[in-house]
Structure formats: C-alpha cells, structure tokens
Amino acid sequence: ETGGVFKTVIDATAGGMSSSTKNPYVYISLKDGKRVDIDDLKAKTSTAWDIAFKRSVIRINGGDSGAGVGAISIQTGTTLDKVTTVPTASTFAQDDFLDANCKISTDPIGQILTAIGGTTGMWYTMDGISKLKPNPDTYVIKLADGSGYVKMVIVTYYGGASNTASANY
C-alpha cells in the first residue's frame, strides 16, 4: 500500500477440511511477496519459501519445517506500525514440533504445534464455537535465507466482506 507495506489475501483452504491431507501447503516468499510453486516434499529442502499456510496451520521455514534459518518473534498486543526495530535474537523461535522419537507435538485442537502460536500453539482465539479470531499480535519473521526480516499481522482468517470462507488470510 505505502512505505513498503502490502496487504494480500492468501487462500489456504487446501481443498476443505475433508480433503486437506491430500493438498499441499501454500508456500510464500516474503522477500518478493510471491507464491512459491513447490510441493510439501520439495519444501523440506528449499530455502525459496519463508512462510507456509494450510487451513489454520502456519509454518516458518526453519527448524522442523524446512531447511531455512527462518524464525519468528511474536510481539504481543502491538500494532504493525509500533514495531520499528528487530527484536533481540533470543525472542525468535523456529518450528519445533518433532520430539526425539519423531512424534509430532500438537496444539490444543490437534494441529501441528508451530512457532507462530508460541508455547500454546494458538495464534488465535475461538470466537464462539468455531470461528477463529487472530490474536492482536505483530510477528517479526526472519527470512529463510537469513537476508532480512519482515513484519506481519494477521487481520482475518475469513477473507473479508467479499469472501467469508475459512482459511482465507
């Protein structure tokens, strides 16, 4: 929109809940703001993507999610414009959802426990019975290739007025 800030919609519906296991994540390069056309297997060894979306799961390319050095720092309860410096290195976390026996750690609703949700795995609260409401946080993401940082907020999970389907960030 202005000053290096852009707004986009990411369709992470992955074929709906019933067939989501048959559909890959949506991989995004934050450096150039484009979708990276790779499958889940190739993504494991690629540093071309920084963030991936599939339904309510968001992964960062680092740690258990990929070959990159990507990591995320959650700036709780602040707005995008108020985050003006890169947080200290100690506040960044990589995806760490596999234990020593390769068992997957999950969040309270059974999704992969990724770094964007912090210790609880929840980057959102539940509004009523089944509506996801993004936390009012700003995320600072270290790019997978280590070349810089991008800050991000999640405005909605339902795509706005013209599209109210879930998994439309």
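Above is the first protein from milestone M3; the second protein from the same milestone is given next.
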Amino acid sequence: MKKTCFGLILLSILSVKTYAQTFGGRVGANIASQVWNTGSESYTTPTVTAMHVGANLNMGETDRLSTQIELTYSEFGFGKVDTDNGESVGPLKIKYLKIGCAIKLHPVKDLNIHIGPEIGFQIIGHRTYLTSGDFGAFAGIEKFFTPNIGIGARYYYGFSDINEDPELKQKNRALQFSLLFRFNSQQLAGLGF
C-alpha cells in the first residue's frame, strides 16, 4: 500500500513539474543479430526481425541540445544458424526491459541526431546459459513531420558478453526502425511547434 501511495504521489508531482518537458514514445522493428567469438574466430549470425515499444521523457536544455530518458521493451537475438554437426540453432528472440539515456543534437527543430548508453534486463524466456543483463550504446537520427509524429532509425551496439559460457562470447547488435510520437508540451511550444 505504501508503494502504491508513493507511486501515485510521484506520478502527480511528475505530471505537474514536467509539463515543460515532453513525453513521447516509439514503436517499431529491430533487425537483430549477434556477434559470436570463440577464441580467435568471429561470426556474425543471421538476423531475426523482432519488435520494440517504449516511452521517453525529453528534457530540453537549449534549442539545439536536449537529453532524453527512455524505458523500452525490446527484443534481440539471432536467426537460424546451421552448426558444423549439421544441426540448427535458433531463431532466438531475447526479451529485455531497456533503460537508456540519449544526448540529442537538434541541427533544425524537427530533426535530431542522438547517442547514448543503454542497459537491459532479460525479462521473459530466461535461458540458463544467458546472463540476465546487457549493456551497450546506440546512435541514431529522428525526423518529425508534424509536432507529434515522426520516424527514427538507430543502431544498437552491445558491449556485454551475454553468454555465461567462457568458451563463447555473444554480443547483441540491432538496427532499429521506429514510428515516433510525442505529446504537446510547453517545451514543444517554446521551440515553435
């Protein structure tokens, strides 16, 4: 009960205090693969198409620079891989809850280039040989066609080895395409939207 009350109070404070900020979200597709390293050999897996959906809070600092905090459900993994012994592995989709922070450069008001770190926690379909966490970085571009609707593309580069087996290192990679939306705010109005 205390947690529920605290959550409602925090949500109320945020809704009043952050109206000058911009709430938004994104939904789209991940073209995901992995890089596998075994000793001196490296192999990039076939891709698998997966999904992502998330929410964000953009905090304006200047008309050219802003920061954004993100919370995203995102699927990573790899397509079907044929092994040396004639068997197949995959396709595999690994489901994560991702928390990211982007620094966004706005060369013009309806376009941004962004980069930032992201940490993920595996939430569904845990496999015993995989670690529960994933850490990486992303870089991308977003274009808004109206004050509230836009599209985006970014590339995710995983730094973490997500396999517990010391003989095989697996690292996530993904090309992401998103439909973007954001809600009207004082921040957008101040930028001329």
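Note on the second protein: The chain is about 10% helix and 60% strand.
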